Task: structure prediction
Amino acid sequence: MGGDLLTDYLVDDLRAAQTGDQEAFARLTEPHRRELLVHCYRMMGSLQDAEDMVQETLLRAWRGLDTFLRRVSFRAWLYKIATNACLNALGKRPQRTLPAAIYPAADPREPIASPVEEPVWLEPLPDDWLVDTAENPEARYTLRESVTLAFLVALHLLPPRQRAVLILRDVLDWRPKEVAGLLGMTISAVNSTLHRGRTAMAKHHRADGHQAVQPLLDDEKTRRLLNAYVQAWDAADIIRLIALLKDDVAWIMPPLPTWYRGREAIRAFISARVLSARARGVRSRHVPTRANGQPAMATYHRPKAGDAYQAFGLQVLTLDESTWQIAEITNFLKPELFSRFGLASELSE
Result:
């Protein structure tokens, strides 16, 4: 829902903020910052864009405090500003996705395509951004499912306004009247837009075998699988590694458009490209972490003895709980992401 109206002590902060008290304004807005970041991330698909949109939201809110009407919640007012800031920005930017959604699977014997560096790829989300709140049983999607990579790929196939309506209704569980007021639409327009969005999501989300996953429920079991995966990489044990993967597993590497489908293709790629580097003296270290509510692994490479291990890429693992195997590995080859996940940019020997 949009949230409760301001309590008495927050009314005092509002009055103070309206007279220019920035500390009072921070007390009003700070409790909502993380959820606004995640909301803008769902809308934009990018960490930097999400942060920019939240900064824009707070700036607009500060400048427009005199227009805030207490008959609506302050939280809903911030969401209105944030959503409309995202919609304005999305009208000028390319759609974000992942390579498997727009390119066919490649042959590992063929050369790897050149990277596509334009801002067209979805980025991973640090779990630290997720807000610890009770799940709403009325919401169609759980808060964690709604930040998984499979969900985001499908979500970003929707036009921006459809995307906004679906998030507000099916993730945040806002009422149609609230969404209509936020987006300046009629209730009937909200309902018809939601119907189109749900139809598209049903077609694209979980439509593919490797996307047929459930939200992670057994954290201990997940940790054991992630540890086994990290240990297999540490030992350069391709047999143990491949055994953890589903038959139709996908291996995706943005910003490279090249990606692979199936155990044998991935075995061939790892043998030819990754393990051969080990034979040339390149060593790696692997650190378990989490991203998008999913298990993940940070990879560091050391080109030669005596050098520090340098940040290389972040792998996000999608699990299939029906087989408890890895269904998709998305390798974000973007070392600058490490700082956002609280990961060191290099590791010493």
